[in-house]
Amino acid sequence: MTASTTNFQLPTPKGSGWSRDTRGWRLGVGSWKLTLAAALLAFGCSAAPSGPPEIVVDRTACHHCGMLISELAYAAAYRADGAEARVFDDIGCLRTTARGETGPLTFWFHDAGDREWIEGAAATFVASPEIPSPMGGGLLAYRDRADAERAAGDRHGRVINSIADLMSDADQRPIGKGDM
């Protein structure tokens, strides 16, 4: 009985980028489009979202103190370039942590009235020892300046006009027992 060997070659569609040589099946140069598409897909899936992060009440922990975020009126977040967003249960926790950052930050705060996210540049803040924030920071954010002024009057507090004022040492006066 004679053994015969047959060289069997699988058919490949023209233009598929695959070819067979003496070393086996190889992906040819013509498949650069496929490689590029795969790389873009992988990169696109890993990119950080540009909007505010999701906070699940009583499930999401504050980045600074570890306490679960249970009241959206006091919750805030920021994202450093190229990093994941950090969430906070108290604007005072955000302020303390953000002061340690060196690069540009994107901020979001919850409006004390409707509990919806506000972009940081649009927020006006109220500081008062009468604001019972979770960690005693005594800070609230408002989308509307008139609402902030009204809340400052009602709570014997002061209006802070911007994130820069909130973060600056020049504007830091004792807020309350938990001034962070």
Provide an overview of this structure.
By secondary structure, this protein is of the alpha+beta class. It contains four helices and nine strands; from the N terminus they run ββαββαββββαβα. It has a domain at 72-171. The chain has helices spanning 32-46, 91-98, 145-154, 163-167; strands at 18-21, 24-27, 76-80, 86-88, 105-110, 117-119, 124-127, 139-142, 158-160. The strands form three sheets. Strands 4-3-5-6 form a four-stranded antiparallel beta sheet. The longest helix has 15 residues, at 32-46. It is elongated, with a radius of gyration of 28 Å.
List the SSEs and their pairings.
Blueprint: E1 18-21, E2 24-27, H1 32-46, E3 76-80, E4 86-88, H2 91-98, E5 105-110, E6 117-119, E7 124-127, E8 139-142, H3 145-154, E9 158-160, H4 163-167
